[in-house]
Amino acid sequence: MSEAMTTDLYEVTMAMSYLREGMTGPATFSLFVRDLPAERGFLVAAGLESALDYLSGLHVGPEDVSAFAAALHRPPRDLEPLLGLRFTGSVRAVPEGRIVLAGEPLLEVTAPLPQAQLVETYVLNQVSHQTMIASKAARCVLAAAGHPVVDFSLRRTHGVQAGFQSARLGAMTGFAGTSNVAAATSLGLPAVGTMAHSYVEAFQDEEEAFRAFARTHPGPVTFLVDTYDTEEGVRVAARVLKDLNRGPGCAVRLDSGDLGALAVRTRNLLDEAGLTDVRITASGGLDEYAVDDLVRSGAPVDVYAVGTRVGVSADAPYLDSAYKMVEYEGRPVMKLSSAKVTAPGRKQVFRRTGGADVIGLADERPPSDCVPLLETVMRNGQRTSSGPTLRECRERFTADVAALPPSARRIRTPVPPRATASGELGTLTERVRRRITERTWAPAARRAVSARPGAGS
To answer: Which of 314, 315, 281 minimizes the C-alpha distance to 300?
Structure first.
């Protein structure tokens, strides 16, 4: 199925109307998150590379026109004005890996109005989902306080594409590896994995299972020790590792129960067996909250494997994101709906070290000691560069998250910083609001006056 038809129907109906009315002037749409989810002190910008891949390859072909026509119960010839449409516009965006806050544009699309409208659904989908997952992964890294975190999410993410994205976004925010072989191969990440309980159950007992596994894998191995009785499983694993003279690089994995208490007992048993170099990996329903609890309790866990709850961002599975027009043919526009007011004009985010971000207009002079976040990443429908490496994204993330106030980095009850509007943006907002108000309510007021009994007599 063509990506061009991966869109909401109303994008097609609007694009068709714009074309019929000759409304093909340049329009700017801004993508932003109105409010952060609960228990979030920041977001990590992500999904831009997927969005740019889509935009640079967009082409409405005959099969797309046929699909649009069928959906609208119209003959294909009625949809032919869309045939051959490509994205020819520009994109300014916050690079992946940077910290962003509520109200700040993650990207702005400027293109002929039908194009800018038609791409809304796909772009919003990619940026919203990946920013949500990256932000969850980032909090796991913070909670682990320097301990390695690895991605085990593929089996339960909402589709294999989402699983690939989770692995990539985990690596972008500091994960040490992934169980996803395709992602590890494609992205150059360390592939990690152990064994399942079913492997142990297939043998007569744990010792037979562990010895068989070690025969197949002569290097460092990780034994899953909680299929039956965890402490006995640790004793068996220790015996096998000692018999085979395995130690450094090997590990045991705890996947259920009171992980903190079991980690303490496991560490003691391994140390008593002289296996001080054997590590403990914890898994099983972990997210940043569980990891934070284990780290704060002093549990001797060496590696945290996070899966389902992170891969679907279980506690905050969506973002209050929006893609709104802010300018058409040089005319700033805004929305005045209750609780969903938008700010007009093309924008820029100015970041000041140690101070609040400032959301201003794209062409205004940056405040002193500020760095603009949005960069031109696409022009005339083509990327301006080949895109950053994962390492570059990770370096951005590391620098930005270190600059956040400690209260924003907290796992529980974080306090997100609030961006402020520049004076120029505030002035423009009031001017556009006044213009819309006068245009919308003044005629209605005149009609109401003229309708009164005796009016004009």
So the answer is: 281
224: which strand partners?
Answer: 253
Task: Select from 327, 353, 351 the least CA-distant residue to 422.
Answer: 351
Statement: the pTM of the whole predicted model exceeds 0.85 = yes
Quote the tokens at residue 83: 């045939």
CA dihedral 247, 251, 252, 258 (to 10 degrees): 120
Q: What 3-state class would DSSP assign to 297? A: helix
User: Which tens digit of pLDDT belongs to each residue from 12-53?
Assistant: 999 999 999 999 999 999 999 999 999 999 999 999 999 999
Q: Go through the chain and tell me how many residues it has.
A: 457
Structure tokens at 81: 């004005």
DSSP 223: E
| Paired tokens of 97 | 């890996």
Domain boundaries, the chain: 3-133+317-411, 194-282
Looking only at the bridges linking them, the beta strands covering 90-93 and 105-112 are antiparallel
Q: Which helix (H) or strand (E) holds 293?
A: helix 288-297
DSSP 169-219: HHHHTT--EES-HHHHHHHTPPB-----HHHHHTSSSHHHHHHHHHHH--S
Domain 3-133+317-411: homologous superfamily in CATH? nicotinate phosphoribosyltransferase (3.20.140.10)
Q: Can you state the angle between helices 288-297 and 120-144, rounded to 10 degrees?
A: 10
Superfamily of domain 194-282: Aldolase class I (3.20.20.70)
